[in-house]
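ok new one. same drill as before - structure tokens go in, u give me an amino acid for every spot. 137 of them this time. try not to just spam alanines like last time pls lmao
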């Protein structure tokens, strides 16, 4: 029953039970809960967590889940901006408008900072690449 999954080249050697345990770790907030969900002992799950291949697959799957969540947020961002615009233009409670203004300005400043950081980081990466290649900037 503890067959190795053959069609997964990115994590050779993991068993079906280990894949089930990884899924359980992603779905539960504690290792204990994940062990119960995957129907393995806590001791076994902790032992797997110490294995490099298991840990690497868990990290990969967590990144996959996080990327998926970010994609969903990106999809919702247009609606969020529309709702924020509606709140900014609302005639009701001025506290609602003030809150919307704060969110809009904070978001704009954060976006600007992130863009500047990205540009500076890209410039540094180009310099490092050129230096490694023996080129002058």
């Amino acid at each position: 029953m503890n067959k190795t999954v053959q069609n997964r080249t990115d994590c050779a050697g993991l068993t079906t039970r280990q894949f089930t345990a990884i899924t359980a770790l992603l779905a539960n907030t504690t290792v204990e809960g994940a062990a119960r969900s995957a129907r393995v002992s806590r001791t076994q799950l902790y032992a797997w967590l110490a294995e490099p291949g298991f840990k690497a697959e868990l990290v990969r799957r967590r990144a996959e889940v996080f990327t998926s969540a970010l994609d969903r947020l990106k999809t919702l961002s247009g609606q969020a901006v529309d709702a924020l615009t509606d709140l900014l233009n609302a005639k009701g409670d001025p506290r609602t408008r003030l809150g919307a203004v704060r969110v809009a300005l904070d978001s704009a400043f954060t976006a600007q900072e992130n863009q500047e950081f990205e540009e500076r980081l890209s410039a540094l990466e180009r310099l490092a690449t050129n230096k490694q290649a023996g080129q002058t900037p």
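The first helix runs from residue 16 to 27. and btw The chain is about 75% helix and 0% strand.
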